[in-house]
């Protein structure tokens, strides 16, 4: 049998040292956890993000007098697919700005829904808005827009403010076109 250890050889750690060690360990674990979660979230976003955009060209605006809704501001142009793959449901938003650049009114519409001047002048506003909301466009022209190709758009804003001094248009979205069904 060995004799019991002397009291002087059984040292106890000071509470200050134990607290400091615990704080440092918790800090290191917290920092590593934060950076680990942040890098996972950033990597996830990078994987799902596709390179490309929808651009606009040949944008113009004009007024039409509708028999039931009064004055309509019509903004038209083309939305161009600059993604490397076909896109569907290209959508644009038209805005009316006042002299300070504040938005007075805005309206979104899907590409491929064009109305004639006669239709704009005579159709009820509800039918015009229903036509602009057709996600895939008239004759499905907005269903599969190939890379580099364009789809025409028309945005109709009813009763535009008399304080409107300028207009603007921006693309607001599109989706990846699904593969065509093979028959």
Labels describing this entry:
single chain, 183 residues, alpha+beta, 3-stranded antiparallel beta sheet, 3 helices, 35% strand
Descriptive overview:
With 183 residues, this protein is of the alpha+beta class. It contains 3 helices and 6 strands. The chain is 26% helix and 35% strand.
Average pLDDT works out at 85
Number of helices: 3
Cα shape: elongated
How many strand segments?
A: 6
Share in β-strands:
25-35%
Secondary structural class: alpha+beta
* Spans of at least 5 consecutive residues with low confidence: none
Q: What is the straight-line distance between the termini?
A: 91 Å
Largest sheet: 3 strands, antiparallel
**Helical amount:** 25-40%
Brief account:
This protein has 183 residues and is an alpha+beta fold. The longest helix is centred in the N-terminal third of the chain and has 34 residues, at 15-48. The protein has helices at residues 15-48, 117-122, 125-132; strands spanning 54-66, 70-81, 87-97, 103-110, 150-158, 166-176.
């Amino acid at each position: 049998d060995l004799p019991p250890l002397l009291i002087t050889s059984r040292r106890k750690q000071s509470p200050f040292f134990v607290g400091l060690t615990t704080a440092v360990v918790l800090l290191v674990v917290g920092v590593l956890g934060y950076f680990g979660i942040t890098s996972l979230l950033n990597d996830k976003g990078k994987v799902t993000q596709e390179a490309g955009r929808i651009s606009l060209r040949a944008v113009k605006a004009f007024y039409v007098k509708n028999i039931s809704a009064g004055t309509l501001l019509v903004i038209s142009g083309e939305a161009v697919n600059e993604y490397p793959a076909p896109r569907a449901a290209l959508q644009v938003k038209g805005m009316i700005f006042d002299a300070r650049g504040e938005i007075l009114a805005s309206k979104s519409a899907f590409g491929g829904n064009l109305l004639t001047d006669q239709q704009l002048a005579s159709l009820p506003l509800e039918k015009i808005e229903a036509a602009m909301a057709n996600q895939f466009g008239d004759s499905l022209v907005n269903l599969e827009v190939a890379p580099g190709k364009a789809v025409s758009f028309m945005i109709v804003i009813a009763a535009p403010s008399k304080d409107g001094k300028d207009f603007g248009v921006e693309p607001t979205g599109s989706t990846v076109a699904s593969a065509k069904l093979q028959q």
